[in-house]
Structures are given as structure tokens and as C-alpha cells.
Amino acid sequence: MPDRNPVRLIKKYPNRRLYDTRTSSHITLSDIRKLVVEQEPFQVVDAKTGEDLTRSILLQIIQEAESDGEPIFSSDMLRGIIRFYGPFQGMLGSYLENSIKAVADIQAQAGQQSSQAWSDFMSSQLPMMQKLMGQYVEQSKQLYLNTQNLFGMFPGFPGATGRNDKNGKDDDKA
């Protein structure tokens, strides 16, 4: 009888082993990565508590992939992501999610082309994309700095410079 649940259930046991309930067999992180690549819906849960561990397992897969070969995330990029946790967390998460979705949509549209043609296209577009991303980063940086300067006009506001006398001198005594 076919499994009626479209989401594949993977159970994680205290010994850190993963068990695929659909195939009734133990699997590895590599197997879960294949499920992601094949766009197979799945959920990883703690076998004892039922707690959803899917995000944690996906982060583990990313960590392993970043350790092997050429990483996607540079140290500076990871530092930037860490800095965004807090007030801009939702905005960055939404931006990254939409950006990755856009790249995936482009790949799906180009899926009929051979991998070599796609590779040639991307390599020819790389300089333009780098220039556009550089411009975007610079604009984002300027927007952030302008926002900080705006808040600096209000003494006592978090991030304010503390300058508020007529001569532009600090009110704070060091």
C-alpha cells in the first residue's frame, strides 16, 4: 500500500542515527542532501520527543558542504549575517529567501539547456552580475550610513553620536 503522507518522515535517535520511516532503513546526511536536491518533501523529528529538527539537520548539511570544496559563504559574509540577527533579521531572511528562489527559478527555466550551455551563459554574465551586486552593496551601505546619520541627530537615541550643541561638539565628556 503506498504511503499516503506526502512528507517523508525521518526520525533522529539519541545515538544520532537517522531512520527513514518510508524505506524502514537508516540513512545519512548525504541521503538527506539527495532528498533536498531531488525536492523530496521530508521532515526530521526527534524520535523521543517528536520535536522538529529539520532546520538543524539542514544547517548540518550546509556546514558539511561548506567544509568540503569551495564554500559559498565567506567569513565576511557570515559575519554580516550574524550582525543582521536582531532588528533586521526578518528583512535579511526574506531577502535571502527571495534571492535564492529567483536563482532557482532561473535554473528551472534554463533546465532545458545543457549544463555546458548554462555554465557558458553564467560565466559570460558573471562580470555584469558582479558589477550589479557591487552597486547594490554600495547602495545598501549608503542607505545604512544615511539611516545611522539620521538617528545621530537625536541625542539619547540608541546609536546617536551625542552631538547636539550649536558648535557640533560632543556633549559627552570622555
TrEMBL record:
**What residues does the PHB accumulation regulatory domain cover?**
73-109, 114-149
What InterPro entries does UniProt report for this protein, alphabetically? PHA_DNA-bd_N, PHA_reg_PhaR, PHB_accumulat
Superkingdom to which the source organism belongs: Bacteria
Residues crossing the lipid bilayer are: none
**Entries under Pfam families matching the protein:** PHB_acc, PHB_acc_N
The PHA accumulation regulator DNA-binding N-terminal domain is annotated at 9-68
Indicate what this protein is called per its UniProt record. Answer: Polyhydroxyalkanoate synthesis repressor PhaR
